[in-house]
Design brief:
The protein has two helices and 14 strands; from the N terminus they run βββββββββααβββββ. It is mostly beta strands and 293 residues long. Strands 1, 2, 3, 4, 5, 6, 7, 8, 9, 10, 11, 12, 13 and 14 form a 14-stranded antiparallel beta sheet that branches.
Length: 293
């Protein structure tokens, strides 16, 4: 699932479908890679990145009028993949990241990620529409495992702690204000509170994984019943704070040259004033046909 790894990505990921490619930002980058034989450090890679943020160019990345710089340092050290990442500039406060991945056996892998954001400003609202702001250094992390069985079933289990997220109480206050704004519009015809709610939602409560603690589980089976190029899977994301969740079964077929067929459904469940319980739909079904050329 998307955790700290997204803080330095050039495009936001969909937490329900992290493998899906999304449109990113316009950046300039270089790659330098060097490898060694028989050394503890087998590979080193350095990737500097420039991210311009000006009117009409990456203007949803952060504060405009800045040329931001980022860098990633990659090490293959003692058969462990390690990354160190930094982003600074002016559009966002300075932030740091690190991650690792190691195969314990040929079928069992562990991985983890850590992100640190300096001077993060969290804006939130109470049920009466009063605005608040809290500034602090935010720490986020993810820890997970991947296991491949002898029958080609892959299991991924992850825990994600979102240091920039809202508490369950803050989320309930936000949803309560949304209800109040809607009732005000119905009774008076005034959309002033709805506009205020829309402003606080954008880039804030409306972000993926807006609360603090999540559990992610994914299971996929490669070519069951000897059906070539066919992979069924299911993804479960559980909000530990409010006990709501999403469940997404999926069927993927790639047996046609340069074509991917994908059927995906999602069921959302949760109590009133919970993250998934307050989504605009209870379920959805998607059919995607992707052509590569």
């Amino acid at each position: 699932m998307p955790g700290p790894r997204l803080l330095f990505s050039t495009g936001r990921r969909n937490s329900d479908d992290p493998e899906l490619a999304r449109e990113g930002y316009i950046v300039a980058s270089l790659d330098y890679t060097r490898s060694w034989e028989g050394q503890a450090l087998k590979t080193f890679s350095f990737t500097p990145v420039l991210i311009p943020v000006y009117g009409g160019l990456n203007d949803d990345f952060g504060e405009t009028g800045h040329l931001n710089a980022a860098a990633k340092f990659y090490f293959l050290l003692y058969d462990t993949d390690v990354d160190f990442i930094i982003l600074t500039g002016g559009s966002k406060t300075t932030r740091y990241g690190a991650d690792f991945s190691r195969n314990i056996t040929t079928s069992f892998e562990i991985h983890g990620e850590l992100a640190f954001i300096t001077d993060y400003k969290k804006k939130f609202i109470d049920s009466d529409g009063n605005n608040f702001e809290k500034e602090y250094d935010a720490k986020s992390y993810l820890i997970g495992i991947r296991y491949l069985t002898e029958k080609d079933t892959t299991y991924i289990v992850e825990y994600y702690r979102n240091g920039t997220g809202f508490t369950s109480g803050e989320m309930r206050s936000y949803f309560s204000f949304i209800d109040k704004a809607y009732n005000s519009y119905i009774s008076s015809g005034s959309d002033a509170l709805l506009k205020k709610a829309s402003t606080i939602t954008a880039g804030n409560y409306g972000m993926p994984n807006p609360t603090t603690d999540y559990l992610y589980l994914r299971a996929s089976q490669k070519e069951p019943f000897d059906i070539l190029y066919f992979t069924p899977s299911a993804t479960w994301i559980f909000n530990i704070n409010d006990k709501s969740f999403s469940l997404s079964p999926e069927l993927v077929y790639t047996g046609i040259t340069n074509v991917e067929l994908r059927l995906r459904g999602t069921v959302l469940s949760g109590e009133r004033l919970s993250e998934y319980g307050e989504k605009q739909n209870d379920y959805r079904i998607e059919l995607r046909v992707r052509y590569y050329f």
